[in-house]
């Protein structure tokens, strides 16, 4: 994952885009790209969309992840650390004995 982040940052820096990559604009870009990802599923059966629009979905998902990686770098977050921390929080909110096989939010388990 470190090499991937370095490649993303090198791509950005080769184009002198860091000046535009502040946390606010990166957060906006994540949201916009996530909406473009979601658009591929609009008015479609999810299985049909996942099959018929697979390449487009992969591109939009990549855009979301690239902006997420860039924002983590910009804010000085270690991706593994913040993901593991969130997983630990989620494990406390969704204990297996209460959440197994359920889609309920933690406050209604």
From TrEMBL:
Keywords: Hydrolase. The keyword Hydrolase applies. GO terms for molecular function: nucleoside triphosphate diphosphatase activity. InterPro entries: dCTP_Pyrophosphatase (IPR052555), DCTPP (IPR025984). It holds the Pfam family MazG-like. GO terms for biological process: nucleoside triphosphate catabolic process. The keyword Hydrolase applies. Coiled coil: none annotated. Gene3D superfamilies: MazG-like. This is Nucleotide pyrophosphohydrolase. It comes from Paenibacillus beijingensis.
């Amino acid at each position: 994952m470190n090499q991937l982040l370095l490649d993303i940052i090198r791509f950005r820096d080769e184009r002198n885009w860091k000046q535009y990559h502040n946390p606010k604009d990166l957060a906006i870009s994540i949201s916009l790209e996530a909406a473009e990802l979601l658009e591929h599923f609009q008015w479609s059966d999810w299985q049909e969309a996942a099959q018929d629009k697979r390449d487009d979905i992969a591109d939009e998902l990549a855009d979301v992840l690239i902006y997420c990686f860039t924002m983590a770098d910009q804010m000085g977050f270690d991706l593994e650390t913040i993901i593991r921390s969130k997983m630990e929080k989620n494990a406390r909110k969704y204990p297996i004995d209460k959440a197994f096989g359920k889609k309920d939010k933690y406050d209604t388990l």
